[in-house]
Amino acid sequence: MTEQEDVKKLVNIVEESLETIAKLTRLPISEVLHIIEEVDVVQLRAATQGAIKKIADATDLDTAQITTVFKAKRAADVEDICNRLREEGRAHRARW
């Protein structure tokens, strides 16, 4: 295999890998590349877990419930998400 063939094979693998991330995040591949270059994945995970914990403490909701609210309406702004988190928290406490 020539060097050019090696590079072409690697390009295909990288593009396929980034496409998977792009589909999950709904971002263009160029943005995915930027995120990978700029963001430490471990730090991002820790920050996300910290944010979810703070929201859980404030709403009495668990991670799955919070995630469901976030995913229900991806284009929602923060105020809309907060209103839905508040309502879900009320419903959750009412079940007790």
Short description:
By secondary structure, the protein is mainly alpha-helical. The protein has 5 helices and no strands.
Primary descriptors:
single chain, 96 residues, mainly alpha, 0% strand
Describe this structure in words.
It is a single chain. The chain is an all-alpha fold and 96 residues long. It has 2 domains: 1-39; 41-96, no CATH class. The protein contains 5 helices and no strands. It has helices at 3-25, 29-38, 41-59, 63-72, 78-94.
Report the radius of gyration as a whole number of Å: 19 Å
Instruction: Please tally the β strands and state the result.
Output: 0
Mean pLDDT over the residues: 90
Helix share, percent: over 70%
In angstroms, what separates the terminal alpha carbons?
Answer: 65 Å
Count, helices: 5
Largest sheet: none
* Count of structural domains: 2
Proportion of residues in β-strands: under 5%
Order of helices and strands: HHHHH
Briefly note the structural class of the backbone: mainly alpha
The shape, in one word, is elongated
**Low-pLDDT segments, ≥5 res:** none
Q: Which secondary structure elements does this structure contain, and how are they paired or packed?
A:
Elements (H helix, E strand, L loop, with lengths): L2 H23 L3 H10 L2 H19 L3 H10 L5 H17 L2
Helix pairs in contact: 1-2, 4-5
